[in-house]
Write a structure and sequence with these properties.
Shape: globular
Low-confidence stretches: none
Keywords: Glycosyltransferase, Queuosine biosynthesis, Transferase, tRNA processing
Organism: Devosia rhodophyticola
CATH class of the largest domain: Alpha Beta
Structural class: alpha/beta
CATH superfamily of the largest domain: Queuine tRNA-ribosyltransferase-like
Distance between the termini: 61 Å
Strand content: 15-25%
Number of helices: 15
EC number: 2.4.2.29
CATH architecture of the largest domain: Alpha-Beta Barrel
Radius of gyration: 21 Å
Largest sheet: 8 strands, parallel, barrel
Family: Belongs to the queuine tRNA-ribosyltransferase family.
GO molecular function: glycosyltransferase activity
Strand order of the largest sheet: 4-5-6-10-11-12-13-14
Length: about 375
């Protein structure tokens, strides 16, 4: 029997509070998945990632198949053992990274042939090979191979990619072969065209998946376009399956998408922002490169539940960022990931009590009020 299941615990308008049960632990939704591209969430120990509240992390099929190689990871006990993460892992299919290599790849009905960005070696990724790689990695949630294109794009090109992704979804499902203890998610494509998105969702639903992702957003379109697409497509997705918005995003994106029925998110942004001196907090974004912080003895937020927000002065963090010390990237990445988890935890509690609209408004009002004034 398959041991991955989804339970819808509560709803508040379109917002959903749920739980994904897996053999390696439960995932409380709405959930934010820190991105461990190459088997590590950058600048973070695995236990630190867990301490932020993360139930699940994301691994990257494209990068792991190139280095160190899926077969090697399997021989070393699988990705969980390799990176010392005992809880669930979702792996993307590799499609987004391959499709971004427009000058290094050739796309056919069978799959995509591409040259490694590392050493120029040739590789082929098909729906079947993508499923095989993710299985070798021992992923708990596996994604179908799809074609993701940037927006804006011509409708004919969006339709071609969507139809190809549907055919690849069917092949991915056959290759997955109803593996026990894992889940397979389909990916809705169709750009910013409502009719194409609806056709994609209907096609995926007829094939049948354990969860449904919305792909091809946060690829260049304005936020209002992303939200419009979600308004149109989320009602087309099965209510009894998780809804995953891929590659999103910033806190306001996440808050808006939760209000439109999305359950799962991932993005490199919080750790990348931390490495560049930007901190997310209840005050919004704080740029610690700014000279206003160089003599400020106050912490980021003395009322934060995160000890790192209370422990270090802004002056010290400013110094670490300016001198490009590794410790700065570690501290700020931890603060950002913890804030993202605080955000989704707050959303879950608000949905349970029927107060998500107020929670979202209050959170946005706090961001708009901005950072603490200088003393």
């Amino acid at each position: 029997m398959k041991q991955v299941s989804f339970t819808l615990v509560a709803t508040d308008g379109a917002a959903r509070r749920g739980r994904i049960d897996t053999p390696r632990g439960d995932i409380q939704t709405p959930a934010f998945m820190p991105v461990g591209t190459a088997g590590t969430v950058k600048a973070m120990y695995p236990e630190q990632v867990r301490e932020t509240g993360a139930d699940i992390v994301l691994g990257n099929t494209y990068h792991l198949m190139l280095r160190p190689g899926a077969e090697r990871v399997a021989g070393l006990g699988g990705l969980h053992t390799f990176m010392d993460w005992e809880r669930p892992i979702l792996t993307d299919s590799g499609g987004f990274q391959v499709m971004s290599l427009s000058q290094l790849r050739k796309l056919t009905e069978h799959g995509v042939t591409f040259k490694s960005h590392i050493d120029g070696s040739s590789h082929e990724l098909t729906p079947e090979r993508s499923i095989k790689i993710q299985t070798l990695l021992d992923s708990d949630i596996i994604m179908q191979l799809d074609e993701c294109i940037s927006l804006p794009a011509e409708r004919k090109e969006i339709e071609r990619a969507m139809e190809l992704s549907l055919r690849w979804a069917d092949r991915s499902k056959s290759a997955f072969n109803n593996q026990a203890n894992r889940a397979l998610f389909g990916i809705v494509q169709g750009g910013d065209d409502a009719s194409l998105r609806a056709r994609s969702a209907q096609g995926l639903t007829s094939i049948g998946f354990d969860g449904y992702a919305v792909g091809g957003l946060a690829v260049g379109e304005p936020q209002e376009v992303m939200f419009r697409v979600l308004d149109e497509i989320v009602p087309e997705l099965p209510e009894d399956r998780p809804h995953y918005l891929m590659g999103v995003g910033k806190p306001d994106d996440i808050l808006g998408a939760i209000g439109r029925g999305i359950d799962m998110f991932d993005c490199v942004h919080p750790t990348r922002a931390g490495r560049h001196g930007h901190v997310y907090s209840r005050f919004g974004v704080i740029n610690l490169k700014n000279a206003r912080h160089k003599d400020d003895h106050r912490p980021i937020d003395e009322a934060s539940p995160n000890s790192n927000c209370r422990r270090f002065s802004r002056a010290y963090l400013h110094h670490l960022v300016r001198t490009e010390e590794i410790l700065g990237a570690m501290i700020l990445s931890q603060i950002n990931l913890a804030y993202y988890q605080e955000l989704v935890q707050g959303a879950r509690a608000a949905i349970e009590r029927g107060g998500f609209t107020d929670f979202a408004a209050q959170t946005r009002a706090s961001w708009s009020a901005g950072d603490l004034p200088l003393l």
